[in-house]
Amino acid sequence: MAAAWGITEAQFIEYNPSVGADCSGFVTGAEYCLEVNNGQPTTTIPTTTPNPTTTTTPAPSPTQDGLTKDCTSYYKVVANDNCPKIVSKYGAFTLEQFLSWNPGLGVDCSSIWVGYYVCVGIPGTPTTSITSTTTTTTPTGPSPTQDGIIASCTKYYKAVSGDTCPGIVLKNGNTFTEQQLKAWNPALGEDCSGIWASYFYCVAVPGTPTTPITTTVTTTTSTPTGPSPTQDGIIASCTKYYKAVSGDTCPGIVTKNGNTFTEQQLKTWNPALGSDCSGIWAGYHYCVAIPGTPTTPITTVTATTTTSSGPSPTQTGIIKTCTKYYKAVSGDSCEGIATKHKTFTTAQFISWNPDVGSTCNTLLVGYFYCIAIPGTPTTPLPTSTIKTTTTVVVGPSPTHSPIASNCNKYYQIKSGDTCEKIQTSQKVTAANLGKWNPFIDSKCTNIWVGYWICVGVKA
Q: 365-375: per-residue pLDDT in tens?
């Protein structure tokens, strides 16, 4: 190619050093210098100068693909430059204009190359540049913000302690990429180490989608039909999700979803929870089933007694010194079991079988429970000693407490249920639903998947 233009190969490499001594850096479609104008300035702008030095026509080299042909001013990209930062340096044009003059940069400015010239002016572009390096915001934007935030921002996010770039992308619905977040907020830095708690960051510009995008630079994975938001690393084969609420714990999530999986499985499917389960975020969805997960409660205890003849299944935490067991049947309650055997109190029964809960709301039909330990009387206790104020629940389990004692029709909560949906499907009024299930709060936020509620009573 050099010979075709009347210059030597050595001259071509001298005029275009980016191609390298062996021409291995030659890029098809790129523009290259074939003649030197000795009057053309070759110095780059100092990164500390508030008014950047520009180069006017004729065009310098190298330039990036697609540069607008009517460009009158050029800027040589330096290390750590990005599109918003260059726009901020000049202050005479918008990011949209800059990208239209330099389409080779890409819509997210991911193709900017150090040492290449970009267009920073066309006929009619103002020549006034920014003279201040202090933090700037759009007239309607919140504060404080960091330097260089994009001027066309339409939505902001206030950072909190512990935030990361992938986390901010997740919290804002995956409607933009991590690279776009950094481009709109250049002070974050390439390693995203510049996040300051309580500062506002741009999370949308004109044209940003309102629904999750299909490609992202975060490591979050989910099934195509999975809900959002989710945390990093959620298992890809998930078939069922649970939306966490304030106050949730790992054992609580297991219980709310019918005890069909273990706490360890929950952490494996959702590694962002952490080994101590401190990573639960209210409003985020977590995997609670994969192919093969049971639909009925599982046994999570491998050794429940000191003898080898202990029955199963049992719940976690049953006392190890148990000497006698009872298999729960439909209609049982903690008080009812204590009354039936008359040799221990309701409180003792709960202490020997702690997984039933302090209000006995997780008593499972078909499971074995401890009803005696060494020293338990063999003769009946006084009735007044056994009875407590515990409500006897007749019907399937688990149920919430309290529930109508004359209930004769039950409904098991499913994922996605609301009080309105239940009222429609079960043909029950809001007043009766609340009357028969007084534990339900005014916003219907405390119905748990897998639990039974009353939807009909005896006349």
A: 888 999 998 88
Residue 11 — φ and ψ, nearest 5°? -65, -40
CA quadruple 7, 13, 16, 21: dihedral, nearest 10 = 160
CATH 3.40.50.2000, applies to 324-386: no
- Ordered DSSP codes for 230-278: B-TT--TT--EEEE--TT--HHHHHHHTTT-S-HHHHHHH-GGG-TTST
Domain residue extents for the chain: 37-121, 137-218, 220-298, 324-386, 407-457
pLDDT tens for 197-254 read: 888 999 988 878 888 875 433 334 333 467 888 888 898 888 899 998 877 888 889 8
Please tell me the distance from the alpha carbon of residue 359 to that of residue 434, in angstroms, as a whole number. Answer: 19
3-state SS class at 356: helix
CA 41 to chain centre: 50
> Measured between alpha carbons, how far is 113 from 109 in angstroms, rounded to an integer?
10
Condensed to tens digits (0 to 9), the pLDDT of residues 57-83 reads 578 888 878 888 889 889 998 887 888
Q: Please give the Cα distance from 382 to 9 (Å, whole number).
A: 108
For residues 48 and 44, give the distance between their C-alpha atoms in angstroms, rounded to a whole number.
12
Amino acid at site 381:
L
Is domain 37-121 given the CATH code 3.10.350 in the classification?
yes
Q: What is the DSSP string of 387-440?
A: --SPPP--SSSSB-SS--TTEEEEEE--TT--HHHHHHHHT--HHHHHHH-TTS
Report pLDDT for 37.
55
